[in-house]
Amino acid sequence: MRISIKLKTSAFLAALLLLTVIVLSLLVLQGIQKNQRVQVEQFLAQQAATANTYLRQSLTAQLNKVPETYLASKGAEFGKQLEMISGQAIELYDADGKAIYKNKSGALSAGIGQTLTYALQQKTAYLVEGDSLYYLSPLKVANEQVGVVQFYYDLAANDVFYHEIRQLFVYIGAGTFLLSFILAYFYFNALSGSIIKLNRTVNRIREGSYETAGVKRRDEIGELGEGIRMMSERIRQTIRDKDDEREKLKLAVDKLSQLDQQQKEFIGNVTHEFKTPLTSIKAYLDLMDMYPDDEELLQTAKTNIAGDTQRLYEMVEKVLRLSALEKYDFEFSKEKVDVRQTTESVLGSLQGKMEKFGLRLETNLSEASADADRDSLTIVLMNLLDNAIKYNKAKGSISVSCAERAGQVVIEIADTGIGIPQAVVHKIFEPFYTVDKNRSRENGGAGLGLALAKKYAEMQGGSIALLRSDAEGTTFSVAYPAWSGGESS
């Protein structure tokens, strides 16, 4: 039974969107749970530290400074005062595990009893029973344990918050799924409709009807439709003049073969990014096993393996770094950064590479200080300048300037390179997208630099934009908030 491509596309699209929404929701919910747990643990650890501090202060004010005697005689009073200070329900136990002050009546549960035994060994432990969390921490004086303090924490509010967030994710996920599916459905439906139209056209040609209409699309399917239309015209011409059309038909077949070869080369180039350096490494390792005493071969192998390994490392490192930035919220160490000094430092590290390609450097760097993370700013500049070198023309130039404008520090990087076609300008910040794939491969690029730079800039309140792109080259602009003299986090 033949299944329509529209049905296949719709089913696959629905499954993919649903899987994406579910996976993202689960990951975010797990992050929220982990964050709640960490906050509760930090809060209770602070309360335990407060209890130990208060115990030492209370002993200092007593004539009898023996901790055991104090807890035995003043434990109830100490517990009440500690509850008032901490705002938490507590229980106190002496070094033998005997209850000194209990906020709740009743015998200990098996779980709390085991947790208390663990806490009596100068270790902090906690137990979760239902909506309740029991946090037990040693009470110590001069590194000697004199008892255990137990804090009670109600997890009901955290659970309510988590369930509300989960419900919100259900609503948002369902809405996002429906909206995305509807939009994508219309797009893929149009795509499938063009394929079905092409299929009907092919069937008519098979039946001997050569009147065809092209598909009005500006992509490969449109090209295919136009190719089918042209092929039909050529077949009609063949019927009128067999000898003359035979040569034209041969040209059409050659063209289709060339398109097929180009498609195969494209697929091969995609896998070549990783396969080529790995193949080279494996070949040199085999040669080193075959000729272990050949010093010249060993040196050559080491050099080439190091180069290929560095290329693989850089590609993998950029992929991992970009993935981490998208999944997690990092806290940057923002500070007063001397933009001029940082830019000069990056230019200095790339000086050798610019000289290798015979590039001329022009700078106009004004004194300016940005509120940014120094390492992240360095990464942004390094990626932009590296692209300016890779995609520049021989004996070209690079111009770098920085200045403070309207509360922002603006850095502009211009080159005399190959430029970026206007039709693909909106794609340049997408991961793995490169304008000139052959040149990227020669220089070790994988299309990750601009995506990584944009992510780093935006996560610190900055921005990155393409100001100019034509036959004379490209100009990128990076803007960061100017240093205001206040505190940064």
UniProtKB/TrEMBL annotation:
Q: What subcellular compartments does it reside in?
A: Cell membrane
Question: Membrane spanning segments where?
Answer: 168-188
Q: Report the protein name in the record.
A: histidine kinase
- Could you list this entry's UniProt keywords, alphabetically sorted: ATP-binding, Cell membrane, Kinase, Membrane, Nucleotide-binding, Phosphoprotein, Transferase, Transmembrane, Transmembrane helix, Two-component regulatory system
Instruction: State whether keyword Transmembrane helix applies.
Output: yes
| Entry membrane topology | Multi-pass membrane protein
GO molecular function terms attached to this record? kinase activity
Tell me which residues make up the HAMP domain. 189-240
- Which reactions appear under catalytic activity for this entry? ATP + protein L-histidine = ADP + protein N-phospho-L-histidine
Q: Which Pfam families match?
A: HAMP, HATPase_c, HisKA
> Gene3D superfamilies of this UniProt entry?
1.10.287.130, 6.10.340.10, Histidine kinase-like ATPase, C-terminal domain
Residue ranges of domain Histidine kinase in the record:
269-484
Q: EC annotation?
A: 2.7.13.3
InterPro entries (UniProt xref): HAMP_dom (IPR003660), HATPase_C_sf (IPR036890), HATPase_dom (IPR003594), His_kinase_dom (IPR005467), HisK_dim/P_dom (IPR003661), HisK_dim/P_sf (IPR036097), HssS/ArlS-like (IPR050398), Sig_transdc_His_kin-like_C (IPR004358)
